[in-house]
Design a protein that fits this description.
The chain is of the alpha/beta class and 395 residues long. Helices cover 35% and strands 18% of the residues. Strands 3-2-1-4-5-8-12 form a seven-stranded parallel β-sheet, sandwiched between helices. Strands 9-11-13 form a three-stranded mixed β-sheet. The radius of gyration is 20 Å and the shape is globular.
Length: 395
């Protein structure tokens, strides 16, 4: 039975990924230090509904399914703690069987501070973002090099690394001809926040590890994710992922739906022409699973653009209004001064065929899908705080 180690296993994507693999017969270990929860407390932004601790979630999962997800709480910026997962000295905070599961065949790396606005709030949060994200990546690279060189790393990148170039966005690589000679290079990066800049640095670190140490790495350039329910979370509502609706940690579709339900005008930044690639949380799980089933080769940095369709902010606002109005919410759209330094109208054409080629079957953002999300968020309407929806973090 293959062993999957999930770094950042408490997060919006980490916990659903843990259940997804566990439900399919994998040995699963998750590690987290509650970074996201603590950051939300620090800046006083509410989650839509209460979330049990990671240990409590694992216990609920075992109670409902009989499957074990081992839990370790700790800080992966500590190199010795990270190396423990490959050396047989893990200190589990919860497990059914406390024996070492063995060196993981796959590591899924979500363990980074995930918010562009948080990284831009002030120099302390910027420094934290940079040191946390890069130290975790460096510690993982050296642990795999020294202790598990055959382990496949699946690292979550972001489409935000590319920025908004005026040419098509290829899947990570670009063939360049210059003065009659050709070479393949990493696609040029132009990050729009310090968080996204750390992800660019991540990609460079992993490319170094591949070139110098012959590691096998898949880098998933993910667009903004939306959604709540997965196949596994439907087993018990306490297993739902963390759901933020504020401007710092909430993704745009999740934010818009929450705003619509609470009578808060949809916050369209500037002209609203900002276009990005999006995907359902169910497809994040598929993408990671299919990448695990067909791993990168030794000495390969394989890059996929992890999106399923593109929308502008205006298009997302229009869909939200259409669905919200149908449900009786009388949704208002409001263009506000853009707090971010970004192009509000631009060309955007990413390639995203690679994951389809290895078996991912996309879910699309239909009115029906959004309506189901409206219904879940509406269950917690009384928990929504309008004061945390928009604070105008500027850069």
């Amino acid at each position: 039975m293959a062993h999957v180690l999930i770094l950042g296993g408490d997060g919006y994507l980490g916990w659903p990924t843990a259940m997804y693999f566990s439900n399919r017969g994998y040995e699963v270990t998750v590690v987290d230090n509650y970074l996201r929860r603590n950051a939300c407390t620090e800046i006083d932004v509410g989650m839509l509904y209460p979330i049990p601790s990671l240990v409590e979630r694992a216990k609920i999962w075992h109670e409902k399914t009989g499957n074990e997800i081992k839990v370790a709480i700790g800080d992966l910026t500590d190199a010795e703690f990270t190396r423990g997962f490959f050396e047989g000295r893990v200190k589990y905070d919860w497990a059914i069987n406390y024996d070492f599961t063995g060196v993981p065949e796959t590591v899924v790396h979500y363990a980074e501070m995930p918010s562009a606005p948080y990284s831009m709030m002030d120099y302390k949060k910027s420094n934290f973002t940079i040191t946390n994200n890069l130290l975790v990546s460096s510690n993982l690279l050296f642990a795999v090099r020294d202790l598990a060189p055959d382990t496949h790393i699946i690292k979550l990148g972001t489409m935000g690394e590319y920025g908004t170039p005026n040419i098509d966005i290829e899947e990570g690589w670009l063939e360049v001809e210059h003065n009659g000679r050709k070479q393949k290079f990493l696609y040029p990066r132009a990050a729009g926040s310090l968080y996204h800049t750390t992800k660019v640095m991540d990609t460079d670190l992993y490319w170094f590890g591949v070139r110098m140490w012959n590691l096998r790495i898949t880098d998933l350039m993910q667009g903004p994710v939306y959604g709540i329910e997965t196949e596994e979370s439907k087993i018990d509502p306490r297993l739902r992922p963390i759901f933020n609706y504020d401007e710092v940690f909430g993704t745009i579709v999740n934010r818009f739906i929450t705003q619509a339900i609470n009578g808060y005008p949809l916050t369209v930044y500037g002209k609203g022409g900002q276009t990005r690639g999006y995907l359902n949380i169910k497809d994040t799980l598929q993408c990671v699973h299919m990448s695990e089933k067909s791993p990168a080769e030794k000495g390969e940095l394989r890059i996929f653009n992890q999106v399923m369709e593109t929308f502008s902010v205006n298009e997302l606002a229009d869909i939200t209004k259409r669905v919200g109005d149908k449900l009786g919410y009388n949704v208002e759209i409001k263009n506000i001064e853009n707090p971010r330094k970004e192009a509000e109208e631009h060309y955007y054409n990413p390639t995203y065929q690679g994951l389809i080629n290895i078996g991912v079957e996309p879910h699309y953002l239909t009115d029906e899908v959004m309506e189901e999300m409206f219904k879940v968020v509406a269950e917690y309407k009384d928990n929504i705080r309008n004061d945390v929806i928009f604070r105008g973090v500027k850069w």
